[in-house]
Amino acid sequence: MRTSILIAAIALGGVANAQFSSGFESWTGNVPNSWEGVKTNIPVDSVQQVSVNPHGGTYAVRLINHSGTHKRFTTVAQTVTNGQSYDVSFWARGNGNIRVGLYDGRSTGFGYAPYSPYTTVNGAWTHITKSIIAAKDTTVAEFIISVQSTSGADNIVVDDVNITTGSAPVNASIHDIQFTLDTTSALLGMTVSTGGIITASDTDGYYIQQGHGPWSGVYVFDARFPVPLRGDSVTLVGTVHEFDGNTELDGIALFTTVSSSNPVPGPDAITTAMVSLEQWEGVLVRVTNANCTSLVVSGNWIVDDATGPAYVGKRYYSFSPALGTHYQVTGPIEQHFSKHIILPRDANDIEVYTGMADEGVLASAALYPNPASDALTIDLGHAASARIIYTLSDASGRMVMNGTLINERSIIAMNTLSSGMYSLVLRSDAMVKSIAVQVVR
């Protein structure tokens, strides 16, 4: 769902126009014309004219950097516009890693935009196009070709560089950005205009969220100073990337703090087994009655509410849990090394859970028929006004169904389940109720 209050309509023009073009045909001494800007740090003798097998014309350029630390080969000063995306297109061959960047003197990243991901070049001519967004109006910008780990006789040879203004950003909700039928955003690589309420932040970036529910939050990689604060309503333009399994936004431009000290969306109540579901990535969530089953695993600890284990991280707040203690844990979810991890933000996000036997208003919840065959009706009773998450697990503990109950009386289809015993768990923000359900065929 789009949040029109938070997403600003930003007109940037939409037609691609030529910005810079170089086929490396003209050289002054050992330097190709229009290159070797002041931000270049690759040694002069590592930039060589190539006349054998250019992509077009007579010459190309060879870039040599055997180390794993990148070196910059930059254009001379260029004019760029705040919020404008630029498509950097070129041909490359040889062996090594290559990416693009931009220096525009922005207030973050020491004036540099975040680099694009590396492309590994291995052999014949390959056409590469990367997009990057300017974050400042300036006439002294420099576009960057960055290389590392080059090898072989060719190292990396580059030819026919063209830089054009890209399309205007697409207005997108966070749901648009995050929703996927697999693990990759449908908007991957696109420049988007979006916004939300900040739910967590540090010096590397922040999480923004629009409302509640699956696909409502996303991480923004943006080392901005001063650091945006929890509760800020912000709008921004950025590029959709995948990093370490996370969908995130980077290359941030046109960042605006619309207002501050807004209510942060309340956490969605989920089970520990649901933490690993793609739909909750980036969303502020809460697990309840979660037993600490392991103290430290690669810097994280593990909790389990009997539906399956979930990891708790220490990125924002370091906590020493007690093995066997039940906790209520709140935080956004990130993926790291193939693990989905809840990130508590401060001491308020970790509480010892003391209501394990107290079902509260959930005590009046009932279901029928039980045993069930085709359908199960859940009557929430006094809990009808609460937000209730349900999970259904089989006898082995494997979750087979989950969702949100939004009506006083809800019907769940059971016709796809095999005969046997199942456990139905109902959860609100602070209450839990478990009911044994039998399915018969």
Protein model, in words:
It is a single chain. With 441 residues, this protein is mostly beta strands. The protein has four domains: 18-165, Jelly Rolls (Sandwich); 170-259, Nucleic acid-binding proteins (OB fold (Dihydrolipoamide Acetyltransferase, E2P)); 268-352, Beta Barrel (OB fold (Dihydrolipoamide Acetyltransferase, E2P)), CATH 2.40.50.140; 360-439, Immunoglobulin-like, CATH 2.60.40.3080. It contains one helix and 31 strands. The protein has one helix at residues 174-178, and strands at 18-22, 27-28, 31-32, 47-50, 60-63, 71-74, 78-80, 85-103, 119-133, 138-148, 156-165, 170-171, 191-202, 205-209, 217-221, 233-243, 246-259, 268-269, 284-297, 300-304, 309-312, 326-336, 339-342, 350-352, 366-368, 375-379, 388-394, 399-405, 409-413, 420-427, 432-439. Strands 1, 4, 5, 6, 7, 8, 9, 10 and 11 form a nine-stranded antiparallel sheet that branches. It has a five-stranded mixed β-barrel with strand order 13-14-15-17-16. The longest helix is centred in the middle third of the chain and has 5 residues, at 174-178. The chain is elongated. Mean pLDDT is 88; it is low at 1-15.
